[in-house]
Amino acid sequence: IEAVDVLDAQTVKFTLDAPYAPFLSNLAYPTGLIVSPTAVAEHGAEFGRNPSGTGAFKFAEWRSNEAVVVEGNPDYWTGAPDLQAVVFRPITDANTRTAEMLAGGIDLMVEVPPVALSEFQGDAYTLVEQAGPHVWFLILNAKEGPFADKRVRQAANYAVNKQAIVNDVLEGTAAVAAGPTPPAFAWAYNEALEPYPYDPEKAKALIAEAGAEGAELTFYVTEGGSGMLDPVAMGTAIQADLQAVGLKVKIETYEWNTFLGQVNPGLEGKADMAEMAWMTNDPDTLPFLALRTGAWPDKGGFNSGYYSNPEVDQLLEAARASTDQAERAKLYQDMQVIVQEDAPWVFVANWKQNAVTSDRVENFTLQPSFFLLLDDVVKE
Question: What pLDDT score does 92 carry?
Fold first, then answer.
């Protein structure tokens, strides 16, 4: 950003040093929202713990690892919300979250564990579902070890029975992923891509061709975290599928923050593969931050598997510079074809986000953005 100019009471002008197509969508996403300079000056480094804004609710209290409380904003531009307050409780354990919902301790639960969906049938509950820009994948260490060979990475994609995971582990709450871009980005998604089919014999042939029979793999799995979709059960199923084609897989399980501390700095010298899930606002975000050569961890990105393809780099740079959406779409679609072939990840699933409310809650809907908008919600 070279300059920011106020044109009138309702208009602000940003001047950038280069074309940047995702700019508008980023401004509408939490990481790009305009914040109060007064609050920043007052709280400094503690600004993040003292949020202020113009929404339907005002920040009231934050008890770490226990609750965040917001209260209705009487000055909201469309009027105060019906809810007097909302208490957000972080309950990361899926079984505990389900038990609390069934016991009436909470009114609304997001990320309903697939195995618990059947417990919320009937008039006492309302299940809500919404497809969103989500992709669940395995990062493969393309820098060292067996997955440095593209054939072994492709073999992993053939070896994992993704449809069985979607049906049996996720209870139909997802669709098999075909590549790095979620189909929720309809304008940029490559409809011609088909997911890797489940073909263990093809996987075995590729592993043999690469001389990787019996290779030992370390697999990082998290106990639970943002958009991770029953990760231990999924990790165990993936381990069994890879072992069935002759790979020896050792799972190491970590709490979410510890897991990120292991994965984000890169897998080199530590692991061969790791679970991951992303939800994003623009088709630029995930590949630019996690698939470019310039996004290797030592360069400040999240390309923890060290994938590198100069053609992918060029396509992504061109796509974020183009302000013609049709041109951007073609660039992203071409990128998806190359990335699917290179297989830096095992492309597992695109999640359909879900939530359940009690019969006391009305007017709740999920958003494609994964935001929780509660200004119209009523609790009887």
Answer: 82
Distances (CA, A) of 335 to 20, 209, 270, 312, 339: 18, 27, 29, 6, 6
Q: What is the DSSP string of 191-247?
A: TT--PPP--HHHHHHHHHHTT-TT-EEEEEEESS-TT--SHHHHHHHHHHHHHHTT-
Q: 267, 141 in Cβ contact below 8 A?
A: yes
User: What is the end-to-end Cα distance of the chain in Å, rounded?
Assistant: 47
Chain centroid offset of residue 193 CA: 20
Instruction: Return the percentage of the chain with pLDDT > 90, whole number.
Output: 81
Cβ atoms of 282 and 22 within 8 Å: the answer is: yes
Distance set, CA 141 to CA 66, 273, 286, 346, 348 (Å): 36, 6, 17, 11, 16
Q: Tell me the pLDDT band of 29, cut-offs 50, 70 and 90.
A: confident
b vs e for 299-336, b when ≥16 Cβ sit within 10 Å of the residue's Cβ?
eebbbbbbbbbeebbebbebbbebeeeeebbbbbbbbb
Q: Which residues contact 280 (CB under 8 A, 6 or more apart)?
A: 133, 286
For 73-208, strand residue ranges (E) read: 85-88, 108-110, 125-131, 134-140, 174-176
DSSP states of 50-87 = S---SSSEEEEEEETTTEEEEEE-TT-TT---S-SEEE
- The span from the CA of 326 to the CA of 253, in Å, is 43
Residue 373's φ and ψ, nearest 5 degrees, are: -100, 115
pLDDT for position 370: 78
Residue at 148: amino acid letter? A
DSSP symbol at 303:
-
pTM: 0.83
The total number of residues written for the chain in this structure: 380
* Secondary-structure percent of the chain, ordered helix, strand, coil, rounded to 5: 35, 25, 40
